[in-house]
Amino acid sequence: MSRIRSVATSAAHKGREALEINRRTVLAAAGAVSLSAGIGYALRPTDSEAAPAAAEEQPVAEGRKAPAAALAPYTKGTTLASVAAPRNSSGYRRLGDGAGWSRVLRSDLAAAKSGRESRRTALAAFVQFTDLHLMDVQHPLRLEYVRVHDRHAWRPHEALTVPGAVSLVERVNALRGAPVTGSPLHFVMTTGDNTDNNAHSELEWFMKVMSGGRITPNTGDPHHYEGVQNSGMKLYWQASSTVRDQDKALGFPHLAGYLAAAIREVRSPGLNLPWYSTVGNHDALPLGCYGSHADPYLAEAAVAGKKLMSVGDAEAKKLQDSIRNAQDPKGSGYRDFLKAHTRSMRSVTADEKRAPYTSADYLKAHLDPAYQGLGPVGHGYSSANVAAGTQYYAFRISDDVIGISLDTTDAGGHYDGSIGSVQLAWLEKTLRENKDSYAVVFSHHTGKSMTNTRPDPAHPSDRRHTGAELVTVLNRHANVLAWVNGHIHRNLITPHKASNGNSFWEITTASHVDYPHLARIVELVDNKDGTISLFTTLIESAAPHRTDFADLSQTGLAALYRELAFNAPGASKALAGATTDRNTELVLKKA
User: Fold this and answer.
1) pLDDT in tens, 510-532
2) What confidence category does residue 71 fall into, taking pLDDT thresholds of 50, 70 and 90?
3) How many CB atoms neighbour CB 202 within 10 A?
4) Which helix (H) or strand (E) holds 496?
5) φ, ψ for residue 534 (rounded to 5)?
6) Across the chain, which distance is largest between two alpha carbons, in Å?
7) Quick one: which of 567, 543, 565, 542 has its CA closest to 556?
8) Which of 182, 337, 417, 462 is the right S-S partner for 408, CB 3.0 to 4.6 Å?
9) What is the reported pTM?
10) Cα 584 from chain centroid?
11) CB-hemisphere CA count at 13 Å for 573?
């Protein structure tokens, strides 16, 4: 498998063997070559779809150039150096600079051999975003009122998802290559739940966050916020009013002008790397849980001028239970629930931009030249995906590594996932045809959250398969190194080893909507001793750890986003994971 050629060296380890960089790093950085559009056979890109053959043909936009590469290894700008931490021990916690998280060696699947540091050869390096949940917080279909029963159901920081995501982009743009090897970063991959309510407004914001542009995170009234946070209800943080709400009782601040700032225009520089996209349940399904065949009333209610903001505890519990237990995949029960509460709804400004988008809309947005950024064209998807109605594909990262993006959402409804037989057969074929390359698989769902095998209404004969079945398939192929995913909003790294001796690492990364608001850098290296190492390094957004309540600038809001999330009632610090799930070196036997 190792056909790598040296074209560059690193001065990271003087007196040691020079670090080799793959000769196709330049190609990968300009937009990796498409292998397959997810229609069951390998599809070579046409001239109009192919990425540029050299980086010089697609220069980095002014203002997006990363700093000159530093000597590796480095820690600055990563959680190895510092992580946001509380400065006080009780009440509302103010954040500041905390100690970094050290790197942990994991040899669950293979022993680490001494001297590997001087022998390493870089294979690939990339960044994973996951669960951005860019959120239209004024959307009429949102279930904020379930908070009366479950305080996790609505979070005080939700109005700041857009400036928070832009700050994450700014962090990536400031990185000096891969922290361990110094290799150029090849791309950013988002592993789903890029949006929250499956709304056109959110899809536009996501595309602009990633590729650059001006974003106004507001729908309805163009001048005023119309949602639960100016409702006067004590159930929600009334940041800009004097109402003594439940969150202020916990120490949340009064911030005059907060809501006006939250809906103000935000500017994203766009990533200075190519980026790819994987679909999640919140991107594919209304509210992330109702099927593609959802009751038409929900689409009508999404753009209408009425919003429900309050219900009783018992009613909230009944609705939440129906969602958790997948009792209402079409949303007809939710339709009846909303109709029964029509008189309790408040008037808001109707807005067509809140309409749900379809899978075809999602694909076409990625193929829109307005959102190309630094490419590649379609961000992994192609016109063949549009024609076939698929949202999975494969792409070449470098000479020795391919990437495979799966669609694990279940169109039949519910937030947990599965994979269809047709896609599973395509995956096997793709791995078999590229057996001389290492493979990194991307999906939204984790293995243990793929338990929903409800049939797809559009393809009822396409049997759905669980995560355990997917693990079995991946373990049949010695070239699979990693399965990278999200969904559970928690850092978790799981070893998978089969009886045939094949093994791979499942790398699950915490969300960017719940604290600790992380993304992850992954580096693949050949240790030249019969082992492969995967280095994982977590990063926070570029926003400062310390907040200033008087600073409602774009940067100030991004910092506040993190601190509010840390203090959100019911927020779990366990989402950061154990030290073995954060910054790691993961060792594998070389096939």
Assistant:
1) 999 999 999 999 999 999 999 99
2) low
3) 28
4) strand 492-497
5) -110, 120
6) 76
7) 543
8) 417
9) 0.91
10) 20
11) 9
